[in-house]
Amino acid sequence: MNLACEPTCAGLEKFVIYETQQHLYVVGCDRQQLKYRVLKVLRRSAPSLIDLAQEDASSYSKDELRDVLEMAHEGNKQGGGLRRVATGYGILGFVRFLDCYYCVLITQRRKVGRIGGAPIYGIKATELIPIRPAATKSDDRSLIRSFVAETNRRLNPTQRETAEQRYVSLFQFVDLSKDFYFSYAYDLTQTLQHVMHAQAPLSSQDPASDIPPLEPSRRSSYAWNHKLVKELRDALGSSAGRWCVTLVHGAFVQRTCALFGRSLVVTLIARRSRHFAGTRYLKRGASDTGNVANDVELEQITHAPGYGAGGFASYVQVRGSIPIFWTQATSVTLPKPPIIVDRVDPTYTASQKHFADLLERYGGPCMVLDLTKHVERRARETVVSAEFRRAIECVNTSLPSETKVRYCALDFSAASRSKKPTVLDALSDVAAWTLDETRFFQCQGTKVQLQRGVLRSNCIDCLDRTNVAQFAVGAVALARCVDALGFVRGSSLEPGSRLLLVLMELYSAVGDALSLQYGGSEAHKRAGIRRGESVTVVPKHQELLTSIRRYYSNAFTDRLKQDAINVFLGTFTPSEEDIPLWDLDSDYYLHNVKVQEGCLLTMAVKKDAWLSDSEEDDKGDVRARVVRRCHRRDDLLSKWWRDALEAYDASLQSTESSNLEEASKHRFERVHQPSKLTQFDKILQADSSTPVPLAADLDASGTVEKRFLALGSSNVAALAIPEDDDDEGIAIEEEVKVPETPPKLDDDLRERASPVSQIEEESDDDDPCQKAERLVRVLFGATPVTVEGLEAQAAASKAALDASIKSDSTFVGRLQFDVDARGETQYGE
Question: Order of strands across the sheet with 36-42?
Fold first, then answer.
């Protein structure tokens, strides 16, 4: 399937920065190095980037760009000419503290995976390039004097220079080389469902335009460079989308599995929200705007590539702190500080805003899985869990029955001590209940199914227990996805399935990454499915080391991390008139602005809207007037969830249109053309790779029954996604291991088609590696491949699995190539 989505960078993938005495020239080119654009920035101090940045409206070829750069060099020879400063693969934006602007440039990248035909990259290195006036050259007589003055300035900086350097250090304290991801052709801030079916139709866009929106406004909460690109967007307008990439923070892991000759790509994307972001004890509960701490959206994507139309399926779930006002004060002497509900919210306005945001993003219903303790000797978690239940009851009073928040309380600690049923059994029941309510997204050919609603999981930290719960839900969702994509029949996976082990590995990697970002250490608990285990707890010595690392991070380094996050996200804007960030006692008022401005939490602020008399109220009796006022009050109280659901429905494009494929075709297909596969991809995605039903069996009644192969525990092989992309190509290695005890094979399994018939017919006694080599020569030889040849190969290959299975032979193959899915060479680092 060709994934239709809006490119987030309009084709500019490589950037070179030049400088002269007066200007900074940013040159960007597309993937094929055929189209070049120039952005010119003045090298002087200014309060706004609007006065500095100017884009050249023309698009240049390589020869035309060379002439432009030569003219710039000749015109600035007296000042030293044109000098090359840096080379990179993307611009994250521009930032200013007290002195000058800085350009944040990605200098090294690494490929971490691919969604459809769009590569996904992680950042390996960045560079902060200052845009300040160039130093004037001195003659020989004043050279020594200038050197002494410069040395004296460096040894005795002013208070402003010291503050500037401190803000730069805080900004660079955020390690962009860890868990930050971007893509040129896929909007990582969007879910797969919105990418494929929620964009504007092609007819409403300018076909000649190659400038996409930099980021959708309703999903900008997951763009961590939102503030960095804001001023460039103000300066350039819509064309800023071609210069800056959208940065997502969280986790991205991907594995490719082989199921009986078919490929299945499983991807996990964790997106951290930039709102109310921070560290463990410094960010708890919710802000007055309804944003919660440790807000993470987790999307599980299942892709079945195939010849022609493949298939996509995805499931989205979220985690976040309990949406009420509560805190835990950081203490060096107390490893577990007491939990305090520090603010009274009688109408639960923050909780209402939080669920309104969930309804706007995912629709209804909202499913809540509360994993906190409900019975304690000393009340800690029960304080917030009880308050959370009261908040949900208050929110549900104004919601209709079909949209009410579904609340499920599961004491994880008590359930983990129970042997039957285990905690994973209980979580699986919750997952089945949730998927029946919300369903999952599926797009395969003309078949489309949308997910409406979301599961929200939480414990106290939203780390360890939440990791296990989301894995249990993801396992049930994966089983239903592979069933819908035609791999297996049945809505559950075997406990010993290799596919389930691969999924557990992915969720463990994501859980560790999120735990390190929020808590400062790896996760304490992991899901276990081997030998009937329910939850795997790390060994005692490792758990002790993990607890020590988490305690040290929370007590000593979290304050510095929080200051760095506030500077990077633009939550705190430096100013010479205001107090420096490091002198603030707390950042509470940076995230809770309405508390500082003042806000009434009663109906008094809305009294004029529902209590005022209209012309109709002047007529009639008193009873009718009161009834009309009550109706207006009810409409006003239900307005918050009505507006949220209307916004969600407006964001979705109708999928019942007869011309769905044409309506969902966007700039992605026009710019990147993923349908133009290389010869390599055409061979691998032949008809022989599509699902093949087993040989028909004739039962006693004479009816024909076609059975599909059930998912086994030893038929899945994980393929590692390469970390780096370079000019030499990408190496893909597949290893299929022979199980110690081969499973019993049915007669219809032995009659199943095989793609290695030519190899088997030549010799049944050959070594499996030799068979693999001959198969590679047949598939990738110099003989031109035609459609008739592919059909002949597919027909000939369907007769030899019997001999392959009888010999119980497997092989290890390694193929290397230097082109991607569109036949284009990758850039080196």
Answer: 53-55, 36-42, 23-30, 12-19, 83-88
Closest by CA to 268, choosing from 527, 496, 498, 478, is: 478
User: Contact 294/462 with Cβ under 8 angstroms?
Assistant: yes
Task: Report which DSSP code applies to 620.
Answer: S
Enter the tokens of residue 713. Answer: 């525990």
Q: What is the three-class DSSP state of 111?
A: strand
Among 176-180, 304-308, 546-550, 728-732, the range of highest mean pLDDT: 176-180
- Distances in whole angstroms, Cα of residue 746 to Cα of each of 325, 455, 695, 717, 749: 60, 40, 11, 22, 5
Question: How confident is the model over 204-228, as a mean pLDDT?
Answer: 64
| CA distance linking residue 609 with residue 626, whole number of Å | 14
Distance CA 81, CA 103 (A): 21
The CA–CA distances, whole Å, from 339 to 329, 381, 383, 478, 521 equal 8, 7, 8, 37, 21
416, 534 contact by CB (below 8 A)? yes
Half-sphere exposure of 9 (CA within 13 A, CB side): 29
- Element of type H or E holding 106: strand 101-115
Burial (CB count within 10 angstroms: exposed 0-12, middle 13-18, buried 19+), residue 625:
middle
Residues 482/711, Cβ–Cβ less than 8 Å:
yes
The token duo for 204 is 């409403």
- Best CA proximity match to 755, nearest among 716, 794, 708: 794
- H helices of 113-189, in order, are 143-155, 159-173
Integer Cα distance of 442 and 452 in angstroms? 12
Residue 675 DSSP code: T
Separation between Cα atoms, residue 272 and residue 626, nearest integer Å: 47
CA distance 690 to 734: 19
- Please name which of 102, 117, 271 lies closest in space to residue 179, comparing C-alpha atoms: 271
Mean pLDDT of 404-418: 88
Mean pLDDT value of segment 59-66: 92
Assess whether pLDDT exceeds 60 at residue 743.
no
Contacts of 235 (CB under 8 A, 6+ apart): 48, 49, 50, 52, 53
Please report, for residues 94, 128, 680, 815, the alpha-carbon distance to residue 727 in angstroms, rounded to integers and kept in the order given.
30, 26, 18, 16
Which pLDDT does position 26 carry in this prediction? 94
CA gap 382, 391 in Å, rounded? 14
A 10 A CB-CB count for 453 gives: 19
β-strands 366-370, 406-409: how paired? parallel
How far from the centroid of its chain's Cα atoms is residue 21's Cα? 41
Q: Where are the alpha helices (DSSP H) in 404-460?
A: 412-416, 423-438
Taking the CB of residue 678, how many other CB atoms lie within 10 A of it? 15
pTM above 0.70, yes or no: yes
Give residue 791's pLDDT.
59
Identity (one letter) of the amino acid at 433? W
Q: Return d(Cα 232, Cα 656) in angstroms, integer.
A: 39
> Residue 324 has which token pair?
């009420």
HEC string of 795-818?
Answer: HHHCCCHHHHHHCCCCCEEEEEEC
CB distance 94 to 232 below 8 Å? yes
Amino acid at 281: Y
Token pair of 82, please?
């044109």
**Token pair for residue 714?**
């030893």
Task: Report yes or no: 96 and 102 within 8 Å, Cβ to Cβ.
Answer: yes
Residues shown for the chain = 829
Lowest mean pLDDT among 290-299, 325-334, 572-581: 325-334
Type of residue numbered 752: R
- Span 336-355, mean pLDDT? 90
Percent of the chain with pLDDT over 70: 67
Could you read off the pLDDT of 67-113 as tens digits, one per residue? 999 999 998 888 788 999 999 999 999 999 998 999 999 999 999 99
Judge contact between 25 and 226, C-beta under 8 A.
no
Phi, psi of 816, rounded to the nearest 5 degrees: -135, 135
